[in-house]
Amino acid sequence: MKRRDAFAVGGGLIAGAALTELVEHWLAPRAAGLVNGRNSIGELELERIEAATVCLRHWSERWRMGTRRKAVIGQLSEVSELVENPQGAKVQSRLFAVMAELAKIVASMSFDSGDHATAQRYYGISLRALQQAGPEHRAYGIGVLADMARQMLDLHRPEDALDIIRLALDKSDSLGLPPVARSLLRTREAWSYAHMGRAEAFRRSVHQAEDLIEQGGDHLPLWARSFDHAELSGVVGARYRDLGRRQREPAERRRYAELSAEYILRALETRPEGQEKGRAFDHVGLGRTYLVLGDPTASAASVRSVLRSRSAIGSGRVRRRLEDWHTEAAAMHRDPDVAQLREELSFTLLPLPRT
After folding, report:
1. N or C: which end of the chain has fewer CB within 10 A?
2. Model-level pTM?
């Protein structure tokens, strides 16, 4: 995997069968083993690179835009130069694993800022690096697939998301991933079905996710360690709201919205205080649900609580959900609380400057 190939700038977003075929290709076993060259870096240098990657991982969880993304790309470029020169097999494998994580961090930052084509390209780089890193790193690739499916859902392409997540579920079974990790994947599957309006399939996937998370599991892969009952409840609650909007009968619409509120309130009750972004998604999601339930005052109160968290407002995805509320609340603009908050958000949601 040449550096010029890894950092090649190519076209726009890939979707449909072309995306599925590319993902399947990247996840196929590598054709030959790593070339066992002569190490040009020592153990201390390798540990420094790995420690820097851990720092950047935590950094990306708080800040995802501008110059910070460029810093991660710089570190990725440095590692990609090292893997161009064949190292010893173990060192080369560890370098490719680092490269995969750095590429995934850049992809997540790009996704958060709404730069979907760049995000997808770096998810692809991550998968290609993992292909070279060896089978012991295959489980990390499942997390990359989960993120790629999440991106397709954000782009309102549930069929693509479902294709990717089914592939991830197949791979997770063959790798014997713990139940909690498979529960996360099932929530992505349920999310896809909700976007497609397939209520029965959605409920089936939700029940599978709930059963799996109760089974727990040790030695969770990195990408599944933050997934818990609160996260599951928040995701499921938001999807019940999406399904409710599709119902023609007012009674059914309300029933789904009430289930949505029940799940999201449960998420807020169980989510740790430190998870500001997760709580922000819950509050905005609950505000959108209250709109469906015809309670504009409660809706505005729930959404307003998000504005007190500067770190949450810094997330592009949180801001996009606030924009969704702003649009959906237009029908209730005569309510004074809604009108005032929409006016405030019209200033708060101005695009952030890119640096």
Report:
1. C
2. 0.90
